[in-house]
Amino acid sequence: MASLFAEKARYFNPTLALSVTLIAVSTFNYGFDNQAFATTQSMDPFTRRFGVYDEKTKDWILEPYWLSLFNSLNYIGFAAGVFAGSLVSSRWGRKWCMFGMSCYALITATISVTSQTREQIMAARVLNYIYVGMELSVVPTFQSEIVPAPVRGLVVGSYQFSLVLGGLVINSICYRTSSLPDDRAWRIPIGLFYLVPSIVLSLIWFVPESPRWLLRQDRIEEARSNLQRLRSGAFSDDEIEAEFHDLCTALEKEEEQGTFVELFQGINLKRSFIVAGVNFFQQTTGQAFVSQYGAVYVRSLKLMNPSLFSMCGSAVSLVTISLSLLVTDRFGRRTLLMVSSIMMAAVLLSFGGLGIEQPVPVPRKRGLVGLMLVFAIAGGSGWLPLTYVVATEVSALRLRDHSARFGFGVNVLFNFLVSFSVPYLISDQYAALNSKVGFIFGSIAMLAFVFVWLCVPECKGKTLEQIDTLFQRGTRMRDFSKGVGERYDEDEKTIDVSVKA
């Protein structure tokens, strides 16, 4: 383990380390929002404030239709945020996008924490997800553009790591506040939404702007200076100059940024298919059920404190994702994604099998809770962190902002559809599948394995420019691991494309 840390650390100088850390910290708020609402909606004070009294059960409840809307309408804001964030990021830069979305997040935090009615809390979540969508559109792209190729998988994958870490922090707080008898139980966790945006908007100006974005704006000397700041001390001057020339060469071949329509033309159609595919399978293989409805489902089983379950799930995910990120640049994206697919399919099909016998006996209920925690290992080992890595790697350089908008739009669309559908699928009032919903998600996880095997190239250790070259040459997906792409020759001013023996 120590050798893995040492191997990764040598690529970072203080500026790059602080930059990727601050960018990753921004993702904490996604984890805060995601898990704060997922966990607080299982609290009695939250249910009394925003639910209705059920005469049949003599208890306060959140109706399935309201849960469906509460956990799905927010993706309307998410979609708007992805679109707006990619436009702002492309036009005014990655830093201005992060500053603007952090200022906006302070407004939505105020609306959330002061909620008195179910309409206000619903609107607050939708509006806050505009910020989350902007974050998704800029953070993975920004990270992929400023880090060296050997650690790109680690850094870009930290998006999911930060999300889960934020979820662990907020779930730990929810566990402590869940015993409070009044609205403080849910207002305290939601009040923490102020913390991360305040930190980011104060410090983002100390982070160098993306050299790749600056080159596309014809700000060449500023791009050279920023690359020097991000590499000095970890790389030699010759290595920094060679990387800068690679960036310039790629830009000269691009000439200008492409249009959205080009995503579906020529070789770009294959790349867009991969981007859409990884985002589709991340959202349709059960993670929304566990992350959004896990606490509510555990509450219905009446076996343990739902906040404790959420905290345990976040802790398991955090450890698994950490290990996955450390080894992804060694074992590759394809291997981890295929292993993750097999594990998820096994867990989900077992989850469905335990619910066949009705009513479900207590030992099987314990098994269901255990499998939901094992699912955190299965997803965290591949699909949760590496979707963002693959999506940002295979995008064409001249279409990166359009590709991000398209790919994450697919992510949001299916996140919405799954989140909207799950309450109706598991509720006894509707489809009454309960845990048998695992058969649906497990089958999709099996298809995810086939998709990775046939369609996802191995891009570990390659610069974004080298990946671009391999696609342009029509390299077969299975041969990407052999290609090393372009190298700019300073003396001969030529491009050499070679393949490992």
From TrEMBL:
Residue ranges crossing the lipid bilayer per the database entry: 12-32, 65-84, 96-115, 154-174, 186-207, 308-328, 335-356, 368-391, 403-426, 438-456
Q: Which GO terms describe its cellular component?
A: membrane
Molecular function (GO) terms for this protein are: carbohydrate:proton symporter activity
- Output this protein's name: General substrate transporter
Which Pfam family is one of this chain's hits? Sugar_tr
Family to which the UniProt record says this protein belongs: Belongs to the major facilitator superfamily. Sugar transporter (TC 2.A.1.1) family.
Keywords in alphabetical order, please: Membrane, Transmembrane, Transmembrane helix, Transport
Membrane topology is:
Multi-pass membrane protein
From which domain of life does this come?
Eukaryota
Which SUPFAM superfamilies does this chain map to? MFS general substrate transporter
Supply the source organism's classification.
Eukaryota, Fungi, Dikarya, Ascomycota, Pezizomycotina
Cited PANTHER family: PLASTIDIC GLUCOSE TRANSPORTER 4 (PTHR48022)
Principal location: membrane
| Every Major facilitator superfamily (MFS) profile domain range | 19-460
- From which organism does this entry originate? Massarina eburnea CBS 473.64
The compartments listed are: Membrane
